[in-house]
Design brief:
rod-shaped; mainly alpha; disordered C terminus; 198 residues; 2 domains
Amino acid sequence: MQYNTQREQLVMPEYGRGIQMMVDMAVGIENREERQRCANTIVKIMANLLPSTASKEDNEHRLWNHLARISHYQLDIDYPVNIVPKEEVQAHPAPLPYPMKTIKRRHYGYLVQQALDYAKTVEDKETRRFITESIANQMKQDLFVWNRDSMDDELVAQDINRLSDGDLRLNLNGFTFEPVGESPLQTSEGGKKRRKRK
């Protein structure tokens, strides 16, 4: 018995090994007219194998390109559509450069650092205080996710001062942090936690 793992790997497994064998046979046909007739039949069978794609506008173009690909671009026939060159199909896009950012406190993330840098540029004292308090709430949320044991109001105030190079200060007198760790879906309209169904 011969297992599929011992056979040649399929170029397009969605069409199955039967189509692969038909295409290989068509490549070996010497008579051009017979080879063309065989290719036309194979494309019809391929269309029947994937009926869900038959309604697409580019279905015929796609099927003939798949036929060329399955034959490793060795099937010499008159294609009724333009075939995408092998080089273009196998071409890989250039890798995207990964943005390397220097983050002073990685558990807060780069966006918090950006927000603090922006807050330092705000001249209006009331607006600056509002932005600083909003950032403080986000920082406490980040601490909750990162390590609940280190979630401390004083630590957030110290980190704001440290990360802003002393330009921003969080006044803890009269400021109350928003609740952390609870999403709006976990609480009802009255602010009470929803009871779990038994």
